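quick one, 140 residues, struct below
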Amino acid sequence: MKLKITLTTFLFIALISCKSQQFTLDNLPDKQLVFGKGGGVTGAVDTYVLLENGQLFHTNSLTKIEEELKKVSDDYTEEFFGKLEGLQLNNVDFNHPGNVYYFIEDVNADERAKVVWGSFEHGVNPVYKELYDNLINQLK
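---
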C-alpha cells in the first residue's frame, strides 16, 4: 500500500513538472515574438506577444486592455518562431511607419530587433507581411 501511494505521488509530481510554465504579461520569458498594428485616427496600438509555449497576449494602448488569448498550437508556434529566426531581424534596418503601421519584433532577453512598415513610399519585403498575416490569422 505504501509503495502504491509513493508511486502515485511520484507520477503526479512528474506529470505536473512536464507541463510547460505559464507566464503573465508581468512575467514574460526572454524569448518573445511581438507583433501588432498602430496609428490611424486614434493612434491606438494593438500589441500581441507570442511565447514559445504558445501563450498569446494582447494589449491595447488606448483602452489599456491586457488579456491572454487562446493558446496557439504547438505546430504553428514552432513554425512562427522558425520563420522569425529565418528573418534575422537583427540584421535588418527597416523603420518606415505610415499613418497606420504594422510591426514584427524579435525579443531575446535584452536584445530587440524590429521592422515597422506602413509608409506608401517604402515597400515592405513580402516575407514580413506574410508572417504578420499568418500571425493575425491565428487571432480569428
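Strands lie at 31-39, 45-51, 56-60, 66-69, 94-96, 100-108, 111-117.
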